[in-house]
Amino acid sequence: MILRATTATLGLAAAAVMLSGCLAPAPEPTPTSTAVFASEDEAFAAAEETYRAYIDAENARSADPTSDPEPQSFLVGEALEADIDARREFQKRGMSIVGTSAVVSVTGTAADLTVGDVTVTTCLDSSLSRVLNDAGEDITPTDRDSTVAATVKLVPLDGEMRIASIAGIASASC
User: Would you kindly state where each structural domain of the chain is located, as residue ranges?
Assistant: First the structure.
């Protein structure tokens, strides 16, 4: 008899706990941000960091073809395709680039904080780089501008920024 009473009491207690869980109001959901960046400043800083790392990788590759990281690892889409095409054309013509380029400035121009797309204007000084032919002769155009402005669009991919396009700005000066 005591066993039945205890079992009944436990059954009622379990039912009461289950009912109280059903009757209690559900906790309010915590709002989550869908933004990739918290601010434009954060977006522009991420874009600048990626662009500078890409130029550093290009400079390292110019000095040592086996260096890491591979500059193309910073590129996607149109920028990657353009780089592949340019490298093939240089190889076909027996040309190479030696020396370094330096980032003079990176200025944020647009940022979509939700999607993560960022556009910056860059200024690159290439006065210390040269184009060589397969005989090692300098064939750098004498009329080339030593500083070049470009619009660079970056997009998030797998938690990191990647360069999606680079377009020179002919009328801009650095």
Answer: 34-168
Residues in Cβ contact with 113 at an 8 Å cutoff, skipping those fewer than 6 apart: 35, 36, 37, 38, 39, 40, 43
Cis peptide before 65 (omega within 30 of 0): no
Strand positions, DSSP E, the chain: 96-111, 118-132, 147-157, 160-168
Query: For 129-168, what is each residue's pLDDT tens digit?
Result: 999 999 999 999 999 999 999 999 999 999 999 999 999 9
CATH number of 34-168: 3.10.450.240
Radius of gyration (Cα) for the chain, nearest Å?
A: 29
Q: How confident is the model at residue 35 (pLDDT cuts 50, 70, 90)?
A: confident
